[in-house]
Amino acid sequence: MPARTSSSTVADVNAAGGPGPLGAGSLTSAAWRHAHLLQLGGLSDAELRTVLFRARQYAGLLREADRVVRPMIGVEQTGSVGPLEAVSSELRGRVIANLFFEDSTRTRVSFTVAARRLGAEVIDLTSVGSSVSKGETVGDTAANVSAMGVDGLVIRHRSSGACHLVVRTLAGDSEAMPERRRDPGRRICSVINAGDGRHEHPTQGLLDIFTLAESFERLGTFDLSGLTVGIVGDVGSSRVARSDIAGMTALGARVICIGPPALAPRSLTALGCEVSHDLDAVLPELDALNVLRIQFERHEVKPGEAKENQPRTASSNIIASVREYAELYAVNAPRVQRMRPHAIVMHPGPINRGVELTAEVADSRRSMVLRQVTHGVAVRMAVMSLCLNAPVS
Amino acid sequence: MGRLLIVGGRVLDPSSGLDVEADIAIENGVIAEIAPGLSRAGLRPEQVLDAGGCLVTPGLIDPHVHLREPGNERAETIASGTAAAVAGGFTSVCCMPNTTPALDNDSMVYFVQARTEATGVCRVFPVCAASKGRHGHELAEIPLMARAGACGFSDDGDCIASAGLMARVLSACKAVDRPFMQHCQEPTMTRNAAMHAGVVSTRLDLGGWPRVAEELIIERDVRLNRAIGCAYHVQHMSSAGSVEIVAAAQKLGLPVTCEATPHHLLLMCDLIESSGYDTRFKVNPPIREQSDIDALKDAIARGICTVLGTDHAPHTPESKDVPFDQATFGMVGLETALALYAEALIEGNVIDWPRLIAMMTIEPARLCRLDRLGLGSITLAGPADITVIDPSERWTISAATFAGSSRNSPFVGRQVRGRAVATVVAGKVRMSRR
Fold this sequence. Notes:
The complex is a heterodimer. Chain A starts with 44 loop residues before the first helix and ends in a 5-residue tail after the last helix. Chain A is built from twelve helices and nine strands. Chain A has helices at 45-69, 106-117, 138-147, 162-170, 202-215, 239-250, 279-282, 296-299, 322-329, 333-337, 359-362, 369-388, and strands at residues 95-100, 121-126, 152-157, 190-196, 228-232, 254-258, 274-276, 288-291, 344-346. Residues 1-26 and 301-316 of chain A have low confidence and may be disordered. Chain A is of the alpha/beta class. Chain A has two domains: 30-74 and 85-200 and 376-388, Aspartate/ornithine carbamoyltransferase (Rossmann fold, 3-Layer(aba) Sandwich); 202-304 and 311-373, Rossmann fold, CATH 3.40.50.1370. Chain B is 29% helix and 22% strand. Chain B is built from 14 helices and 18 strands. In chain B, helix 4 (163-175) crosses helix 6 and helix 6 (211-225) runs parallel beside helix 7. Chain B is globular. Chains A and B meet through helix 4 of A and helix 5 and helix 11 of B.
């Protein structure tokens, strides 16, 4: 990752966000050269800004459209109107397929809305009712959909690295058939990671960054230096956390992962963040707290599911009890009171109300949950537009 | 069977210290003469093997291979696996019992022997399961399998996790004078493990396989074995900490040996990240870090690690071209091992050729009691298992030319040096590149 350099000009701040206070980080953006978005880890701060600046542009248009269209309800309208018209042909004639091998509501709908706003057509494939349930591999499903001339694949899969595998498969890099190579003249089908196992969920990371930047008036630069972000909960099992940590630290934020040792192990410091097992101790330092759900489904090993070479002993008892967890780590009103005065609370959803987050906090003015969802559309528009229009190397 | 002459090579037999320029004459499957300038009179050209510029060594022995028969014949068979063996210069292989069904009774020993007789091109010695079905619960019929021809015992692929069973297994193996070979993996610490536990597994979010899960088992077994004294062998050692434990046990005079594989001597876990989750690097135990590689090499230099084994693990593309967490463990090794050991150990200035050959011949022979059959050395009237090695041949590893059925090698495309150019098993030339 290139070192951050200081720069004083903001060449392409547009009207949507307005310039925020200038920090020490680099303010330049870089040309986007990636046909795929697999992870935020490894992207430079300049590359991240390229996406975020574009997202800011779309966010401005979406907000304007929201204001323009609403009062006109009752008047017959077709297609995109008003402010969004300008971008509604960016992906016209392009086809994007949602390949969701794992359940999703928010992310799938958000990608769909984003693609349609840019004029693309969207196909939805879920593992239920498609060939996945007939035993097809993720590589084959992706290759088949791609062979139909689809321009972009939005993939969610339960295995870490599944999107990397798809990219390799589409490139013809197969061990079984070393002689099979992609026709070099053929256009590349973009692969966008919508969550791979517990590895990364890059568009969620971007929308969290966007929400953070908006709340602290950093939309001009997306320079997050001086901000301290806590991520509390099942951090080790969270693809959102990995994307947040990669993106937020690259843009200058300090990130502290918080949870009991089983959920927030010390090894996470390898990702460039800090780790604390004491939420109450770090609360006063926090500008933002991203609250994660405990992913019980990723911890359970059912006896029948153990593989041949896997042990068949005790189930992994990840926390002693929900009661104990809530006592020590649940984000409730008294805890929020102890955060910095302007601090915000985020949650990637779905929320288990009463476990990691109380209803009182979820519905409070501190809660950015729905702002996050709103920004998700703009961020995904930016990612799809940039990846699908990336120059072929 | 006629006479076969291997001429012009440097005859190297580490078991006797023999290291001379000489010819070898073979008759009726045994070594008849070792002397310079043997007469070629009356021999047809195919009866003379030119070994000029080459090492002439005892047939190489691999104490750790998976032949997949019965049960997964698409990945490998005894026919294809032994073809891969002779292509790599091996004349004897010890096959692990994790087949389907497992090699866990004497009839399975007879099955392997019959299939080898019918389809094999090198010697195959079964290592049999120590527990019934390799389930780690009940003791298998160790004496009956030893009598039938098992050369050792192991639940390889799984660790014998129960200390109670382990004590009984060690006693049973001791009674029949066979080694017990442990797959050292504490199971409760390695659930869903896919790679070395460390910075890279944290970044990639793949299940971590910590060093301590290997070290704990070795430490426990050494302790258990103190009063029993069975020949105890650590398979595919991967961790620097394991080296310390084995060294300490050997210092006490305990019968503990260990083996190193090509991949644990050459590959680091960073490759999984830089390759974008390439499953060809997924192996059990996992490839780890530079410090582990250094410790393994040091163990070899100091004579703590005495045996080299490939852990040849063929897999179909269907079981490898899937997401990393779902992919099978292991990589093929028989056809590439010699050159890779040479790269790691000779070019790496760890040991010399005579020691490398010892670690691939007489040392594994002693471990698996094959020295009693005359294997692992070149001796007059002994079995004529010979490997001719060109130590300077440069070649590029290519999956397309593999004799085995599977192609799951992370070394494909690598430029290497040193290659077996002829393999003679019981007097028959089973492979020749000359």
